[in-house]
Design a protein that fits this description.
228 residues, alpha+beta, six-stranded mixed beta barrel, 13 strands, 25% helix, elongated
Length: 228
């Protein structure tokens, strides 16, 4: 992880939906910092700079917030995003200190191409670890290059940097390489599963018309055979 980006934070004194809307109209983001047994600290952050810092820092971005002239290391814990406009609406941080150990979920990045006619299934997209707050891995890279069907990569197979400890179950399945199933086999499995679950599908008008056309064609072929 690179050095935390420094961001100047304003103290937030107004609350409520109206105040939050005014903050966002000014291209700023309301946020709160929890941790170390202290009262939550409510702040306002510059929108674009904060967004870029989170983009560069990844899921566990660490920021150095300047709050009233005092620097506070803040680990990103929750990002609320507007589902329509895709802008950050609110941020939750946890206050941390340099050298302090924190528990985080680190994303898994799968790279490479497995053997032909295989399917790579990412069973778990994150893995829980303990790391120093200023040295949190941005992601763990898992290579499936040339992997044959039946290959399984477990949490214990991950390469962790010095100072990072695996907290997840060592046998946690991260990536599973299986044989690629054909479309026909997949459809047959789906139909079998639906039958076992008692799911019935209504026959569409188009399917009825197709069946009728097939029946007419079969009758015509049969009549031709009889006339011979």
């Amino acid at each position: 992880m690179s050095a935390p980006e420094k961001i100047a934070a304003e103290a937030r004194t107004e609350f409520g939906k109206g105040a939050a809307r005014r903050i966002r109209r000014d291209d700023k983001i309301p946020a709160v910092i929890y941790g170390h047994g202290n009262e939550p600290v409510h702040v306002i952050l510059p929108g674009h700079q904060t967004m870029m810092a989170l983009k560069h820092g990844g899921a566990n971005a660490l920021l150095a917030l300047d709050v009233d002239g005092s620097e506070q290391l803040a680990l990103t814990k929750d990002v609320q995003i507007d589902p329509i406009r895709r802008v950050i609406e609110h941020l939750d941080f946890v206050a941390v200190r340099r050298g302090e150990k924190v528990t985080v979920d680190v994303p898994i990045h799968v790279v490479g191409d497995a053997a032909p006619e295989t399917l790579v299934v990412n069973e778990n997209t994150v893995v829980s670890v303990e790391a120093e707050a200023t040295h949190i891995p941005e992601f763990f890279e898992v290579s499936v290059e040339g992997a044959a069907a039946g290959t399984q990569i477990l949490a214990k197979d991950l390469t962790l940097p010095s100072g990072t400890t695996l907290l997840a179950d060592e046998e946690l399945l991260i990536v599973n390489v299986t044989e690629q199933i054909s479309a026909e086999a997949l459809e047959a499995e789906l139909e079998e599963a639906e039958a076992e679950a008692g799911i019935e599908h209504e026959v569409s008008d188009a399917e009825i018309a197709d069946a009728q056309e097939e029946a007419i064609a079969e009758d015509a072929a049969a009549e031709g055979t009889d006339s011979e």
